[in-house]
Amino acid sequence: MTIRLYNTLTRKLEEFTPLEPGKMGFYTCGPTVYWDAHIGNMRTMVNSDIIKRVFTENGYEVNHVMNFTDVGHLTSDGDTGDDKMEKGAARENLSVWDVAQKYIDGFLCDMDLLNNIRPTHMPRATDHISEQIAQVQHLEKLGYTYEIPGDGIYYDTSKFANYGVLGGQKLSELRGGARIDDSGKRNSTDFALWKYSPKDTKRQMEWDSPWGVGFPGWHIECSAMSMKYLGQHFDLHVGGQEHAKVHHSNEIAQSEPIVGAPWVSYWMHFEWLLLKDGKMSKSVGTAYTVRNLVERGYDPMAYRYLLLQSHYRQPLEFSFESLDAAANGYKNIVRKIADLINTEKTANVDLERYNAWHDKILAVVSDNFKTAEALVWVQDLLKDSVTNPETKIQLFEFVDRLLGLQFIDRAKKLVALEQVSAPAEIVALAERRVTAKANRDWATADALRAEIESAGWTVLDGKDGYKIVKRA
Ligand code: AMP
Ligand code: ZN
C-alpha cells in the first residue's frame, strides 16, 4: 500500500520511497535523561511508535533508532545556560551517571505502559564519544570549524549554503535581527561541536579529545549515532516540532558535508501536547508522567487513545476532563469487544469482509498517519451488522498491531473478571493491585494481595489477566 507523509523539508505531502526496497530506517530524537519524561514527551514517542507500526503492517522491515541524551549539555539551543545533567545530580544528590540510569529506567517503564514497541537500538550519547569526536575531526578537515579559545570548537554555519532550509528560514532572516554577542561566535547561528571543561570546576562527565578535555556539543550526538545504526543515508528522521529550526538544521549542516546531500530522505515533526495555559512545567507540577496517570487510576491505554484521536500535526491540549472522556470512549469499545468474545462462535472468519475492513483502516493511517480517522472506522466496524463476530475479533487483532491500543487484551481481561463471582469489594482490591503492579509499586501490590487473602480469596495471575478464586 502507498504510504504518504508530510515532509518538513519540502513542506509537501509525499509518497514514501525507501532507499532500499522493503526496508525503512528512522531516527527519533529521544529524551534528555535528567528528569522524568512527561506525557508530552511521550506523545512524541507514541507518534514514533505509530510510524513504526504502520510501516511494519505495510510489510517493511523497520530499523528504529532512538537516542538517550545522557551527556550534560547546556540547556539552551544557543550553548549557554546550565548543564541539565549536573543540575539533576545536584538536585538529587546522585552522580550524573546514576541520574541518567534512574531516568532511563523510568522512561522505559512509561514506554512499556503505553505499549510502545521498544526501538531496535537505543544508544546513549556517552557510549558514542569517539564517534562524535571522529565527526568533528572530519568537519575540521573540511574547513567547517573554528575555535573560540577557552570555550570550544564551533561550526561555522556561513560555510553551509543550505543552512536553515528545514526550519523554513533563509540565512539572512535567521541572522538578520540577531546581534552577535561577545561569545566569540562568527555568526549567531553557529553552534558548539566540542566544549572545553571549565578551568575552575571539575565536571563529572568529561573526555579527552584532540582539542582538549571537555564534552561534545548537543547536536553532534544525533548525527553520529544515527549514522552508526542506520547507515550514512537513511529514510526518515523525526522529533518534536521545536527541533526543525535549530537542532535538526544543525544536524543537517553537520552531516551533509560528511556524507553528501540529501543525508535523510524525509523529515517529520510532531506538534506538542500543551496545557490550557501553555507548556507543561515541572516546577508548577503539571509535567505529569504516565506513571502519575496510573497512580490516579487511569489505564495508560486511555491516554494513548486520547493521543490517537488527534493528528500529529495538530497541537493537542491536555486536560483531565479530556482524559476522562477518552477513558470512557476506550472502555466502551472494550465492552463491545468483550461482548463479541462472549458470543457463541457460529461462523468462520469472512475473508472478504476482513480484507475490505483491513484495507480501509490501513489505507487511512498510511495516508499521513490519520489515526483519528482510523478510530472512526473502528466505531463503524463495531456497528457493522454484516460482519460476523469472528471476523470482527480478527480485525481487532489487526487494529491492535497497527495502533497498539490493546483492545483485545483489555476485553479478555474484562471477560475473565466477569466470570469471577467474588464480591465487589474483593474485585476492587484486585483492581487496585493491578494498578499498583503497573506502577511497579510492589509493596502496595503485596499488601493488597495479603488483604484479599485474609478475606478468604486468592488472586491468580495469568497471561490474560487475573482470576479470583476462593481459598481452599
Ligand atoms: P527532551 O527530553 O526535551 O529532549 O524531549 C524529548 C522529545 O520530546 C523531543 O523529541 C521533543 O521534541 C519532544 N517534546 C518535548 N516537549 C514536548 C511536548 N510538550 N509535546 C510533545 N513532544 C514534546
Ligand atoms: Zn536529535
Describe the protein in words.
The chain contains 16 helices and 14 strands. It is α/β, with parallel strands linked by helices and 472 residues long. It has three domains: 4-274, Rossmann fold (3-Layer(aba) Sandwich); 315-412, Up-down Bundle (Four Helix Bundle (Hemerythrin (Met), subunit A)); 424-470. It has a four-stranded parallel β-sheet with strand order 4-3-9-10, sandwiched between helices. Strands 5-6-7-8 form a four-stranded antiparallel β-sheet, covered by helices on one side. Helix 4 packs across helix 7 and helix 11 packs antiparallel against helix 12 (371-383). It starts with a strand and ends with a strand. Bound molecules: adenosine monophosphate and zinc ion (ZN). Adenosine monophosphate (AMP) binds at residues 29, 31-32, 40-41, 43-44, 239-240, 242-243, 272-273, 280. Adenosine monophosphate (AMP) binds next to helix 1 and strand 9.
The helix content, as a percent range, equals 40-55%
Please provide the ordered H/E string of secondary-structure elements.
EEEHEHHHEEHEEHEHEEHHEHHHHHHHEE
State the low-pLDDT regions, or none: none
CATH topology of the largest domain: Rossmann fold
Named at the architecture level, the CATH assignment of the largest domain is: 3-Layer(aba) Sandwich
Q: How many helices in DSSP terms? A: 16
The hetero compounds bound to this protein are: adenosine monophosphate, zinc ion
Structure class: alpha/beta
Please report the distance between the alpha carbons of the first and last residues. 56 Å
Radius of gyration: 25 Å
CATH superfamily of the largest domain: HUPs
| Overall pLDDT level | 92
As for the number of domains, it is 3
